[in-house]
Task: structure prediction
Amino acid sequence: MSTSRVMREKIWAKLKDVARPDTRFHTNFAEVIPDFQGSELATERVVAEPAYRDTRFAFITPDNCLVDLRRRLIAEKKPFVMSTYGIYRGFLLMEPGMVPEGAELYAAWLDGMEHFGRPITLTEIAERGRFDLLVTGASAVSLNGVRFGKGHGFFDLEWGMFTDLGLVDETTPVIAVTHDCQVVQENLQPSETDILVDMIATPGEMHRISRRAKRPRGVKWPLLEPRQIADTPPLQELQRIQGLA
Result:
């Protein structure tokens, strides 16, 4: 069994005690990165950061633990992009004017994002310019910044697409929001596709990472199955942009 799989299962056993069950997947952490007790405190740590305050355009993953952060972004009229579940329907844009006052919390849920947000292509994202901040959930994240998701590699894939288009790079702040029990004390060795984070926001504290390795660049096409490309419209769009299709 791989190190990442062992780490995930070890963390998932602890996470069951603090996770807020998902409406569709309950506590099946192989299918959902859940919300957890105290996620609002972790959000407060994120919004206190200069990287958040200065953000003009952000990317936020569709993880349940980021509902309160998405609510704050909407309320503060900060535009952001969120991927749909599994990236099956690409990306959604949320920007000022899309959500009536008082509906910010509903709009921050995944169903609300689908209702109030609008689909946006990679080309349209690139026309708007670089992301100032990326925030993601995680199954586990180590104190040297190695993040593990559910095991499907969606965030790694999104990062690859964004680097191919020049929307993010080594200097782009990446924050992981997790429960304290999801923080791994050991230093872990990143794989060729693992995205290293700069900060880990938990209910208990903000961990700041001194990264000693570079983040990967580009979509690793040889690692992808044809079915995954067929099921992911932005990958097909990127292939057209790059002249691969």
In short: Residues 11 and 197 are 18 Å apart (CA to CA). The two ends are 36 Å apart (CA to CA). The chain has a mean pLDDT of 93.
